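User: Predict the full complex structure for these chains.
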Amino acid sequence: MRWLWLALGAVALLYPWLVAGTGSAAFLQDMGALVLLAAIGASAWNIVGGYAGQISVGHAMFFGAGAYLPLLVFQQWQLPPLLGVPLGIAVSLVLALVVGAPTFRLQGHYFSMATIAVAELIRIVVSYSDLLGAAIGLQGPAMSVHWWDLTFRSAVPYYYIFLGVLVLLLLVTWHMQVSRLGYYLRAIRAGERAARSLGVPVRRYKLYALMLSATFTSLAGSLYALKTGFIDPDSGLGILVSVQLIITAALGGAGTLLGPLLGAVILVPLQTATNTWFGGSGSGLTYIIYGAIIVLIARFEPGGLLELWHRLAPRFNRRPEDSRAA
Amino acid sequence: MIFLQVIANGLLIGAVYALFSSGLTLIWGMMNFINFAHGEFVMLGMYAALLVALWAGGGPAVFGAAAALVLFVLGVLIYLALIKQVMRGPMLAQILSTFGLALLLRYAAVWVFSPNFVTLPPTALAGTVNLGGILLSVAQLVSGFVAGALTLGMHLLLTRTAIGSQLLAVAEDRHAAMLMGIRPDRMQALAWGLSAASAGIAGALMAISFSFSPEVGGTFAITAFVVVTLGGFGSVPGALLAGLMVGLIQSLSAYYLGPIYKDVIVYALFVALLWLRPQGLLGTA
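Assistant: Here is the predicted structure of the two-chain assembly.
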């Protein structure tokens, strides 16, 4: 198991060089960065959606806050985009309180409905706000003046920044898993009333999970905006942003450490492929496939692919022993 | 006079909101289940009306009934193939099932019908009437009153008929209902059929007066959430009152603040409601 981890770590570290020799190095490096970014966003959603079992369908509001503020401080006040990153997190935390504080007193459905309504509300307001670029959106630095503009032409620097953030997020999640917060969240997911009767401060801990999740989702949004250098209401705040976070986590396995990574490794190349094969109409097809995948996960395998693997793997491994016994 | 006209328009569209929201509240009240694809049911009702009007001809009565029938069947099928199973699963499965369904239906409709806005061919309900200075389109007048009547009909069906009693019995206590010889699965499938049919017919009614595209469903879903929250979960009379209120608020804010505010105000109302009175105006805690 340790060797598997070391090998995975080595591949992740060396990936940009491993693909450098191929004919489409830039394309593959860019896709690598996108996989890492998808993994960051999905892992962030996973904290509240997977571990705490509170299904947010409006995480785009946190992603959008993180994406808009760096470009806002740059475009409106000519400040380094990096300054907007903590501002985005601050806005996300306020939003998390606004949505979470009232709905976490109630059952899970309220939270889901409130997240989608608030996210749509923010998207509409932003798309009419001149300060935020209205429907056109905001742009980042066209070319790098200082290194802290974080504007690079190659995808490789972004790859390593994303990798660093992902490793940090995984460490935080892993630490959470084995700490009081993680145990409380799992108790809440398994049964809120039972958890409360055992003395778990349910409402407060759900809020903690949402705030931690919002922080990293906002960070994912900031990284996206810094890499793309452009944000508009649909790409930052649209419902499809939330969909992307949810499906990536749920496909791999919601509530597991590595599920969101697995989801990202599968979905990002899939999306790139459908877009390449089907051209402009591909994005529509992508979302039909995404919808079908989400329905199938919900219907047949709510634990995602990791759980499917855990169920099927022993069967394959047992085969040699069976033959020996026979 | 313009004030009265704004109010009349708001109430007429509000009655249609009440109709599709009563479908959402039926499922919610009965099964404690939230259908994120309800707005897509409304959208499919619009396209069902369009296809029937184009291919079979026929007026609003024909395509309205057709939309209701198509959506009824779809609702029953979705219950049998998907909801029945995810009901027993974790919260993740319950919420993602209809959320994924919404996505699937919306983008399948984009694929089939293209993302462009379309309108129905002109119907017999063209033209306007002048009610003492208030100008109202015949289509909106008819659809408002039909929607109001159907919502009341839904209420009477639930409270005054044997079928309604059986539905409510399952909602009250599934096991006790089974002991009384009621089959819960059959009743819940019926509830899903009725819920989707109410959305479908509401979609057909709105399609007479408004242009639409595959992506209108998202707005209707959130509107229905607001109406259901405002009216109290599971209450059809509550949905009727709340639907009229939401229509009125939308109409007034669109007129006095500008059209872009009509959804903003309603969504903000929803957030305020969650903070102040999550059990709804008519609901009990």
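The interface with chain A takes residues 32, 34, 36, 82, 85-86, 89-97, 99-108, 110-111, 115, 218, 221-222, 225-226, 229, 260, 263-264, 267-268, 270-271, 274-275, 278 of chain B (CB under 8 Å).
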